[in-house]
Hints:
The protein is mainly β and 181 residues long. Helices cover 0% and strands 51% of the residues. Strand 9 and strand 10 form a beta hairpin. The chain is globular, with a radius of gyration of 16 Å.
Amino acid sequence: MAGPGYTFIDEAEAASSSTSVLEITGIPDTYRHLELIFAGVGESISSYSFLTMRVNDIASAYYENGGVYSNGSAAGNGSGNNNGTYAYWGYVNGINSSPKQISHALMNIYGYNMSLQKTHTACSGASGTTSSVSNAYGVSNWGGVLPVTAAINKITVKLENGSYNFTEGSSIRLFGWGIPE
């Protein structure tokens, strides 16, 4: 059902531990906003990697971001543009981190079908058996501007370090909500 409610659109799941990209295409423009949810673990990562997102295959413009993060014993911030690569929206802890932690992230993209640049807010966290992981981050909050004025019809999610993959079963789910203008 399209309209103002919160509606599931699609999902993508890593079929194996050699999956480097999770992607959703054919996003309808029947909502005002999008919500993207991630749950999973990075393969062969000893600590963490940034969770990143690209829209409509755009890599030639700047994705502007700002964020804060903490691992339970230290905190920091990050900002800037990724030189046209991807938008940051969280951290993914690795399967080799000790202890192993499942990472979760949620991103809202506002006005995704309007002819304006899109803004986004995101938060992420990791659940495990302890409150912190050495050299990894437990919680983060991000926000920024996506370099697109056309409607978003494709979302690509990957880990920042290109040599890392998602573990089997890691997934993204996309929802639409709000009345379109």
